[in-house]
Amino acid sequence: MLLCPLTAVSTFENLKRFSFFQPSGSRVGTACTTNKLALFSLCCGQRTAAVSPPGLLTDRSGTTSNEPGKSTIHTSEEMEGLLKAIQDLESSLGNAKNEAVRQHLQSACAVMRNAVEDHRGPVVDQLARLTALPEAIVSCRPPSVALSGSSAKEPSEGLSPLPPPLDGALAEEVKTWSFDIHKIAAAELPTLCFGVMMQHPAVTRVLPQLSLHRLWRFVQVVGSRYRDNPFHSFRHAVDVTLGISCLLRWLQEAQPTLLSDLQVVAALVAAMVHDTDHPGVMNNFLVATRHPLAVLYNQQSVLENHHIATAMALASRPELDWISPLPASEQAELRKVMIELVLATDPTTHMPFMKRFMEDVAAQTVTPMQAMAAMLKGADISNPTRPLSVYAVWVEGIMKEFFAQGDAERTLGLPISMNCDRESVNVNKCQVGFITFLVSPIWKGIAQLIPAQGPQLLAELETNLEHYKALAA
Ligand SMILES: [Zn+2]
């Protein structure tokens, strides 16, 4: 029986290499696959020079019959041809005169057949087509990568000094709902994000000095893990953090005892990490393409799991571990709340959440978790509650991202997802539907938790709805 150890290279890497070994340790063959082709060769030495039968392994490199044969496989049809040739060879082995050679060939054929079967049909074609897609989709990786060290964009090692507090004018401006995040330079976003967190007295009450230094580095590194997507960028993450910062402050004014300091910290950081390493496509795309992340998370809340798992993996790097200086019970609580909040941003769980949330708003029995989840979800889709000039820029970004997914789906021959077909979608109608069915219901609930600010936010939402209704007419 031959062994077939596979190198630990994920499916979407450019190169995947196999080596086939006998129990004695001698190598009998290799196979390499890339996104576009598969290259098989049997390297069997003198004893098995006859392993390259005519028709099975086509020699395209001018090697002699004593050297390993090679066959380059470009299509699934060629894959099928190779598989049939291997099966033909296997069935002819009974005629071999040398028993040792026969056994060797039989085992080598079995290994080759398994390798071909692993890469036959749609997998080969799919990998080839994926090379045409944006790099972000193909290269998005499980969170173990986050443990493997710093990327070029990340800040250098060492305890970095904390940035100065936000200055007077900006410090007040970020506390208003009309703040325009688009006017902030990308390089300034980490400072702004950390500065807004530090405006909450809860942060310095909960986190010791060491945690604050590590949190500052964590903000910078998480920021560097966001991709330059048209919508799901670090700018969006900071926008959501600023949004939840306002909502938390207003909720604390309305119900001073509802949230603990620890929960405020968890909600602020959850907002900052809630889309970490977003690839710019939706869950359904990852599931449909059998992306490694969809496999890893069993097709359940794939992106949301990826965002929080990547953030938690980063937070386990010693220089970024802002959680471990806390007492054990607080660490556990922080992690639990952050995970729950980020997972709550999965749109597929929105309807059951809303039903319960609205019932509890009406009964005035909203729990801290419900309030925080509603505020994170609300902040995540808060663009239509902002001034139109700010909102419109986000509309352009999200539609660009949706259409890129639609283009990718068209390339792959997949059904084009809702709102993603640039040839048929009406952007204005799209926004009317978004506000009517998603944004408006949750914001009506949130508005009741923050009675002093709620009416103004709902009025802005209504104005924007009318604007897009008029454009859609
Ligand atoms: Zn988001």
Fold blueprint:
Layout (H helix, E strand, L loop, with lengths): L15 E6 L5 E7 L4 E4 L28 E4 L2 H17 L6 H20 L3 H9 L4 H5 L28 H6 L15 H10 L2 H6 L2 H17 L8 H21 L6 H13 L9 H6 L3 H5 L5 H14 L12 H16 L6 H13 L5 H13 L7 H25 L14 H23 L4 H19 L1
Antiparallel strand pairs: 1-2, 2-3, 3-4
Helix pairs in contact: 1-2, 6-8, 6-9, 9-10, 9-16, 10-14, 10-16, 13-14, 14-16, 15-18, 16-18, 18-19
The site of zinc ion (ZN) has 5 residues, from helix 9.
Descriptors for this entry?
single chain; 473 residues; mainly alpha; Catalytic domain of cyclic nucleotide phosphodiesterase 4b2b; 2 domains; four-stranded antiparallel beta sheet; 4% strand; binds zinc ion
Short description:
The chain is mostly helical. Helices cover 55% and strands 4% of the residues.
Helical fraction: 40-55%
Provide the CATH top-level class of the largest domain: Mainly Alpha
Please give the radius of gyration in angstroms. 28 Å
Runs in which pLDDT lies below 50 for 5 or more consecutive residues are: 1-18, 31-74, 121-129
**Spatial strand arrangement across the major sheet:** 1-2-3-4
CATH topology of the largest domain: Catalytic domain of cyclic nucleotide phosphodiesterase 4b2b
Task: Please tally the helical runs, counting DSSP H or I stretches of 4 or more residues.
Answer: 19
- Oligomer state equals single chain
CATH homologous group name of the largest domain: 3'5'-cyclic nucleotide phosphodiesterase, catalytic domain
Largest sheet report: 4 strands, antiparallel
What is the average of the pLDDT values?
A: 81
CATH architectural arrangement of the largest domain = Orthogonal Bundle
Domains, number:
2
Query: What is the end-to-end distance?
Result: 71 Å
